[in-house]
Amino acid sequence: MDIQALLIERIHRGDRSGAHALLDAWAAEYGYEHIPAEVLDPMLIQLGNEWSTSETFTLAQMYVAAKVTEDVLDKVSHLFKVPGEGKPPKGPVVIGNSEDDFHALGRHLVGTFLRAEGWDVHDLGNDVPAGRFVDMAQEVGARVIGVSAMMLTTALHIKKVREEIDRRGLTGLIQLAVGGSVFNVCPGLAEEVGADGTVANALKAAELFVRLGEQSVRKETGA
Ligand code: B12
Q: Which of 64, 97, 209, 217 could pair with 126 in a Cys bridge, judged by C-beta atoms 3.0 to 4.6 Å apart?
């Protein structure tokens, strides 16, 4: 079945329960654990593009897509809950949306994929002040902070996280990962906000966090 096309057709119709029925049928065949990467991520990116280019796609339809995604992520979260299950534990990380940013979906997907790869994810939610990211990273001993931002204005707030890390003398020890569609369309923005790295989607996030974690260890040991 062409799950993307069928799902998007139900979302266009605002048919939340129909979308769930479809996802349940797909999961019965392929497994719930594959839904975030194989269905939700590509669907949301396609709908995001549609939103930006189509005059008929409405906020209500995007709301349905967001709700369906959140319902499914809730449903599958127990599958990814125990860090290290089936994978070597990778340690604590902190994620959240930058100050003033309420675009939670990308962050939810990143958190789900990181948990699946064995990270112990501390998710601070939406609209997180810079200091709170660094406080939490120090509290749990995280080597990487991941900040999600979808808008140019909110991406620029990430500079404050950079400044806070540096002000506390933690440069290099706590690495700063950033992501969100604005970074995909504005080359150079990640460097401008002082990030140590970025990637275009949640699937690649786990790899980025491993690389940044290693950079932090090298900084600490002087290797
Ligand atoms: C859905 C949506 C909303 C929803 C959010 C619902 C929710 N619960 O998340 C609602 C309706 C609330 C909303 C509100 C607003 N939105 Co809006 N929204 C979108 C939309 C259509 C899709 C975003 C999305 O969810 N994409 C799907 C996810 C899966 O993709 P993603 O977020 O990019 O995440 C992936 C990667 O980027 C990466 N990633 C994400 N975070 C991170 C973090 C790290 C560390 C890493 C490594 C990777 C990573 O992994 C993710 C999964 O693969 C975009 C359009 C677009 N093309 O992006 C506009 C958009 C982002 N919104 C926009 C705007 C302006 C707003 C509003 C101001 C109101 C308005 N006029 O529409 C408010 C602002 C709210 C706020 N203060 O945050 C603009 C931003 C313009 C800009 N660039 O500055 C956009 C681009 C639409 C547009 N073309 O105008 N929005």
A: 97
Strand-pairing partners, residue 93, are 121
Count of structural domains within the chain: 2
Q: Which of 68, 103, 157, 183 to mutate to test the pocket of ligand 1 (most atoms within 8 A of CB)?
A: 103
181 CA from centroid of ligand 1 (Å): 7
Residue 197 domain-assigned (yes or no) = yes
Tens digit of each residue's pLDDT (9 = 90 or more) over 45-75 = 888 888 878 787 888 888 899 899 988 888 8
| Within-domain flag for 154 | yes
Sign of the CA dihedral running 104, 213, 112, 199: positive
pLDDT at 165 over 60: yes
Which tens digit of pLDDT belongs to each residue from 194-210?
999 999 988 899 999 99
Ligand 1 atom at shortest distance from the alpha carbon of 184: 37
**What is the CA(61)–ligand 1 centre distance, in A?**
14
83 occurs within a structural domain: no
Label residue 80 by pLDDT band (50, 70, 90).
low
What spacing in Å lies between the alpha carbon of 218 and ligand 1's midpoint?
Answer: 34
